Amino acid sequence: MCQNEATEISLKANEKVFEALLKEQPHIKIEETDSQLIFGEPNAGLQITIFSNPYCNPCAKMHKPVEKLLENKQDKLCIRYILNAFDKELEMINKYLIAVYLGK
């Protein structure tokens, strides 16, 4: 990994950078039926929807800062995950992860 890549990952993993970038993101209307993978307070004023691919390494790296954000603001924040494997042959993992979540 070169120095620029390490710096970029470090910046993306920084919670303050994450929050600043989050505010710049487009807002998309999500219905309750779009996903049942919900963490935090479902009725919170701040709702974040994360489109994630279970096979994607950059997606996986984003889960740590999201966990930290939830630890600090769990009662004021709702995180909703929408899973997509981007390949019909790999979509079974989405169903499996949702089933595991719902079974807790």
Write a structural description.
Strands 1-3-2 form a three-stranded mixed beta sheet. It is an alpha+beta fold. The protein is built from four helices and three strands, in the order H-H-E-E-H-E-H. It is globular, with a radius of gyration of 15 Å.
**Pattern of helices and strands:** HHEEHEH
Task: Let me know the number of strands.
Answer: 3
> What is the count of helical runs?
4
Strand content: 15-25%
What overall geometry do the principal axes of the alpha carbons give? globular
Largest sheet entry: 3 strands, mixed
Structural class: alpha+beta
- The parts where pLDDT drops under 50 for at least 5 residues are 1-7
Q: Helicity, in percent?
A: 40-55%
Q: Give the overall average pLDDT.
A: 77
Strand order of the largest sheet: 1-3-2
Radius of gyration: 15 Å
How widely separated are the two ends?
37 Å
What layout of secondary structure does this protein have?
Blueprint: H1 3-13, H2 15-24, E1 37-40, E2 46-52, H3 57-73, E3 77-83, H4 92-103
Parallel strand pairs: 2-3
Antiparallel strand pairs: 1-3
Question: What characteristics describe this protein?
Answer:
alpha+beta, disordered N terminus
